[in-house]
Design a protein that fits this description.
Layout (H helix, E strand, L loop, with lengths): L3 H6 L6 E6 L2 E9 L2 E8 L4 E4 L9 H13 L12 H7 L7 E2 L4 H17 L2 H17 L1 H7 L3 H11 L3 H11 L8 H20 L6 H11 L5 H7 L1 E18 L2 E10 L5 E9 L12 E9 L8 E3 L4 E6 L9 H14 L7 E11 L5 E4 L5 E3 L4 H11 L4 E7 L4 E8 L2 E4 L25
Antiparallel strand pairs: 1-2, 2-3, 3-4, 3-5, 6-7, 6-9, 7-8, 9-10, 9-11, 12-13, 12-15, 13-14, 15-16, 16-17
Helix pairs in contact: 5-7, 5-9, 7-8, 8-9
Amino acid sequence: MTNSHSDILAHSDFFQQRFAAGDIVGAEMPLSEGKSYTIALDTAQNKLYCSCPFYPKPCLHALALAALVRREGTALFPDIATAPEWLAALLAGQPSHAVRSGSNPEQRAAAQQKTRFERLERAANGFEDLEAWLNDTARRGLATLISEDPAAFDHIAARAADASMTGLSRTLRLLSKIPANAPEWTTQAADVLAQIYLAVRAFRKRAALPDALLYDLQNFIGIAVKKEEVLASGERVADTWAVLGSLTEALEDKLSVRRTWLLGAKSSRMVLLLDFSFGGAGFDPGFATGSIQRGTLAFYPSAFPQRALSHDDLKALPKKVEKVPGNADIELFLDNYAAALAAQPWLAHYAAVLHSIQPFVEKNGRFALADISGKMLPLSVPERTGWALIALSGGNPISVFGEWDGQLFRPLSAVAEGRLADLVISYSLSVISGVSGWNMDFVDHQF
């Protein structure tokens, strides 16, 4: 029996823990975390079995296994001395259901890693395409590329999407929305293309990269780690967390993101919680800026881990943030940023608390921060937010929390006179996010 859809599924990537036991070949098709459909083929009787609940039988999964055996033979199915426990139940015709498998944590982790790296390998053709396009762009020049083909970024974005590089494709689509005559276009375009070229080179050196950086590479191109995997095996940190700021932005017409930043009282960890809204559905209620939560967070794997999920429901404490630890030296802050960027070159966001800092207006009308030594940091703020920050300081040094994109600091909150003020009044669409990331030495760990 043949079926065009089953032929598409007839690939070793879709079947894990393959084996042969006498005349029986069997495999598992992952369903969700810790669960699989179990499938078998009796080659002597040409009879198929599958634990899925779908009808008619034989189902699509069983037909795909048969198609794989028909095309590749049994060489893909290593002989085993002892068949898994589920095989006897399946052949006996017990009620179809998803059978829990891989109960051994080490086996489950190995299977997840194998699947993840196979997904990266399937992007190989996309990397080849990108490298050729980047080399051609470098030879012709950015200006020539856009003048000859205004939709050049859209075209390469579509090709990246075809190669399953959804995150990288979105980055290129957003870049195409910046008018080529915009003052920041050259800098932002060069920055994005440099990150993409770095990803291409990293892919070529993937065998030598540590696992944490491989995760970052995959995340950059759009291969996300499942939440279930993070909650099951991510680094866990229990702490009391101060909610320092939250910002919602539109990424595309039907996609918005909310970034919420937390700071651990004991761990000193700066944490990013990401939430997405599709099709204008809105976000679930989040944490209020200035609130204090207690609980355990599970961190996504990364060479610079900061994104996390709540491992258990965080519990709000009946008090508010009154002060935050920070770094009073802008030069040291920038050194820490450089170190974080060296560890993880595709960092999308980078947050910091600047302590004993003075907001002011430059002669050109732009807002900035200055530390006690006179070093300055330019700000990215709407005018009313900039004046609100200056009014909050009252001419005195304050603590300011915000995001740094490598060029501008965007303040999200500030602490003055024993209270934390939310500065996020209105921020417009930020079309392209610069590389960022940060880690700091704290002078205090109390809120």
